Amino acid sequence: MILQVRNLTGGYTKNHDILQGVHLNVAKGDAVGIIGLNGCGKSSFAKALLNILPYRQGEIQMNGEDISKKTTKELSDIGISLFMQGGRIFDELSVWENLKISTNFEKKIDEIQEYFLFLRDNSKSVHLKKMRSDRLSGGERSQLALAMSVLQEPSLLILDEPSAALSPLAADGIYQSLNLLRKKMGISIILIEQNVARCVEFCSSVNMLRDGKIMYSSENKNIKEIEKIMFNN
Fold first, then answer.
1. Alpha-carbon distance 53 to 70, whole Å?
2. Nearest alpha carbon to residue 189 among 56, 24, 64, 39
3. Is the pTM of this model over 0.85?
4. Quick one: which H or E segment has residue 208?
5. Domain count of the chain?
6. 9: domain CATH number?
């Protein structure tokens, strides 16, 4: 297992635990889904994995090593990258300047362009070095944010709602990139998604959060059955 999470419990205050004993295993090269209704703790779980959200109980191991006490910077350095909901980029910078934030830009940019359609679009390539990022479409912003995450060369990529607020076509572009990244780079993925169908189709297994706990875990690919469990209970 690349990641093992045991009994993760915590929140922003001592008196209110958003996460209440979460367990999760992620195998190397696998994609594991986290689904659930709004407010169930999905984004909090992503932040806890990078020690952005405090937790008072539990253990996180990566490749057999206890990483529970590591800082967010240390976790990033050992290969955990987080794509935050909405695609966080620097609007005042150009597309290329956003990408250059990574120390791996020079050696990885050619490879990265292979995975992201708008970065290899010849009609735009000349302008990307100067184009301000606030001029990008929602789908392009998300692809840029994802490219920035991948430039860190993560072994584990945590995706928090990558299709949120995107058109179906733009979401398709994100998932095409993710499929390529998973197949060619072997990145392990935790996919947090509100869209059950996309999560089930992409992941080998899904885990349903409710009230800060994993209340359902399965390799079931029956989307309607999973949606019924999520919305009717």
1. 13
2. 24
3. yes
4. strand 205-210
5. 1
6. 3.40.50.300
